[in-house]
Amino acid sequence: MTSEILDRRVRRTRAKLRQCLTQLLTQKKIQDISVKEISELADLNRGTFYLHYHDVYDLLDQIEKDLFQQFTQIIDRYSPEEVQKNPKALLVDLLYLIRDNTDLYRILTGPNGDIKFLAKMREVILTRIMHPWGKVIKNNRKQEFPYYYSFITEGTIGMIKLWVENGTEFSPEEIATLINHFVMEGASWIS
């Protein structure tokens, strides 16, 4: 058997296991899901599951790692200077990724999701966007930057969460424009 066929089978099996875990997470918390349930739903035996993952948490961790890898690949395309000049471009690209994975983001940030997921997201935003961006800020307010970061990050994540919960009713460009206005102009933009 060629490695290409084997690779395709492996990808298909992993995709099916991921899809089944995602489906089960719409109904119950991760700690209440068993390998047996995932395997039965995927119509695979438990041995097949264990060929790919150690346990349910390993499967969830791999799903999250894949999302964060895509997230950081997008972030890495922009320099801190580009983000400072035009944060909307980065936001639009990230929002398209989130929209393309809406169900997964809704589940991971919802009541049955992984409570560590948002903490990991904050950490990625801090280390990959805010810290580099903070280094290019040329003023004497650097000690206030952590407060600014907290305000911006929590507000942005909250808006994205609401957007996902509402079925991504606005386009990524529209949400990016809203976020950009709130970040750049603050509350004065609303009045």
Radius of gyration using CA atoms only: 19 Å
Provide the number of structural domains: 2
Total count of helical runs of at least 4 residues:
10
Helix percent reads over 70%
Biggest sheet, open or closed, and with what strands and sense?
none
Rounded mean pLDDT is 86
DSSP E strands, number: 0
Distance between the termini: 66 Å
Name the beta content range: under 5%
Which sequence of SSEs, written as H and E, runs from N to C?
HHHHHHHHHH
User: Stretches where pLDDT falls below 50 for ≥5 residues?
Assistant: none
Given the C-alpha coordinates, what overall shape results? elongated
Q: In terms of structural class, how would the helical and strand content be classed?
A: mainly alpha
Describe this structure as you would to a colleague.
The chain has two domains: 1-53, Arc Repressor Mutant, subunit A (Orthogonal Bundle); 57-189. 75% of the residues lie in helices and 0% in strands. It contains ten helices and no strands. It is elongated. The mean pLDDT is 86. By secondary structure, it is an all-alpha fold.
In brief, what are we looking at here?
This protein is mainly α and 191 residues long. The protein has ten helices and no strands.
Key phrases:
191 residues, 10 helices, elongated, 2 domains, single chain, mainly alpha, Arc Repressor Mutant, subunit A, 0% strand
